[in-house]
Structure formats: C-alpha cells, structure tokens
Design brief:
This is YKT6B protein. Belongs to the synaptobrevin family. Its main location: membrane. 32% of the residues lie in helices and 28% in strands. It has 137 residues and is an alpha+beta fold. The chain has a single domain (3-130), classed as Beta-Lactamase. A 5-stranded antiparallel beta sheet has the order 2-1-5-4-3, with helices on both faces. The radius of gyration is 14 Å and the shape is globular.
C-alpha cells in the first residue's frame, strides 16, 4: 500500500492550477522519476478540471487510483495511491489537508498562487505519515 502524490489545486474560472504538491517517487527507477512526477501533476490537474465543485471521486488511471475532492470554494485536493490503499483514509487525509490549507493560506492567494509562491510546508509530512495506514482495531 503506497501513496505517491498529494496535491492541493485551485479550480479557477479559466483553468486549474497547482498550488502545492508532495511526491514520493522513491519506488521508481531513478531515470523515470521526473516523468512519473510530471504524469502525476498532469493527471491531478486533469481530474480536478473534469470534476464539479463539491464533488468527491476515485478515478482509475493506469495502475493508480486517484482520489479527488473539489470543495465548493474551488480548493481541491488529489491523492494518487496504489489500488490497495483504503479509499476512506484518502478522503480523510484530503479533508484534513484542505481544511488546514484554507486556514493557513489566504483565499486571495489561491487564484494566482503557484508552488513557488504558496507557503505551506505540511504536505511532505502528511505524505510520509500516511504512507502506511495504521492497522485497524
């Protein structure tokens, strides 16, 4: 069970753009890592673009499952995981990340923000913390 990507995006009027993302491509061949990361970024943007406001969905793309949550305010999150990772955990993570992000980053910065300008450092921590979900009790 693996998480590969955790992204926060903004579904603006003209187009969707990435605000912040974290990737774990350590399981891929060194020479494939940058193209895998590009694929994940592109796929995340495409899925958010095709999703309506206030929607949640899980989309299969090649051997990955992409879980997307687009809030009514246009803030969106995408988790890319393998097929075995529990869907419920992914949506819990997206809820937590988007709530925290919206408290820490001004809504005025969302339409014009980019990974270079948005200051939100928690994604890498969440990606590693949720890498292997805790066993159920």
């Amino acid at each position: 069970m693996r998480l590969y990507s955790l992204s926060v995006l903004y579904k603006g009027d003209p187009k969707v753009h990435l605000l912040k993302a974290a990737y774990d491509v350590s399981t891929f061949n060194f020479f494939q890592r940058s193209s895998v990361q590009e694929f994940m970024t592109f796929t995340s943007q495409l899925i958010v673009e095709r999703s309506g406001l206030g929607s949640r969905a899980s989309v299969k793309e090649q051997e990955y499952l992409c879980h997307v949550y687009v809030r009514n305010d246009g803030l969106a999150g995408v988790v890319i995981a393998d097929n075995e990772y529990p869907q419920r955990v992914c949506f819990t993570l997206l809820d937590k990340v988007l709530d925290e992000f919206s408290r820490q980053v001004s809504k005025m910065d969302w339409p014009s923000g980019s990974p270079a300008t948005i200051s939100y450092a928690a994604l890498d921590g969440y990606l590693s913390k949720y890498q292997v979900p805790a066993p159920r009790r």
